[in-house]
Amino acid sequence: NYNPGLTQLARLYRQVGRMADARKVYEQVLRNNPYDVYAAMGIAEMDIRRGRHAEALRRLRALLEWMPENVPARINAGLCLASMGDRDAALREYERAVELDPHATVAVINMANLLIDMGDRKRAEATLSAYLALHPTDRAVLGIACANLVALQNFGSAAALLVRAIEREPQAADLRSRYARISCLGHQWKIAADQARYAARLDGADPEARIVLCVTALHQGDHERAIAIVTDMISEGLMADSGLFDALCMVLDACAQDQ
Q1: Would you call 255 exposed, middle or buried from its count of C-beta atoms within 10 A (0-12, 13-18, 19+)?
Q2: Alpha-carbon torsion 189, 210, 162, 79, what sign?
Q3: In 3D, which of 110, 105, 116, 117 has the Cα closest to residue 93?
Q4: How far is CA 63 from the centre of its chain?
Q5: For a Cys staple, 183 with which of 50, 155, 188, 235, CB 3.0–4.6 Å?
Q6: Do the Cβ atoms of 181 and 251 come closer than 8 Å?
Q7: What pLDDT, on the 0 to 100 scale, is given for residue 2?
Q8: Model's pTM, two decimal places?
């Protein structure tokens, strides 16, 4: 007999790592109700995790035939298609998902990343900007958008996204330190120094703020302070982070251009 609680049992099995048991329960549910979306999606997601993208895609397409507006199914279909090398078809699935739900964060991120991989950074910018107009402080999307704009050498637009986010969250140290770093790249050294100091007052341990304080000190000729900041960060193990290392390299390059 069909019991909707079985899908929750399957989910519990998945959470504790009993994938074979989860699959058996999902299959039991589908035998009783072939249109159970949770069971169909559950098996598809398990197949995706195992790298069985073709099988997952067949199940997702069958689901979408009778439920074409299911956004998670569209996103997963896009993921399968991208993994199978059909990036144009994957992009169409992501586009449709975003059309159906402009707030679908995963669809926006997947679509933007795929566009960037395809070399279409301008279209990625438009996709990310449309989402950030609705959710200006979404850290994941904001990070991708700023990195994309930096790659396009469009530091002003990246800064504008951060200014808007800061207007919503004026006490967010991470937003101010990122604004400071972008300002360095755009050679806006006073803004960079002011925002880094503000971020450091909010959170003295903020590593991005400390990187900017190092580079603005260097820009002002205070070499000893710049060296001391980086030395402290190394002793704390922070520079082992590849993201921070790359961020420091970029702002040091910007500083060198002005020296």
Answers
A1: buried
A2: positive
A3: 110
A4: 27
A5: 188
A6: yes
A7: 62
A8: 0.89
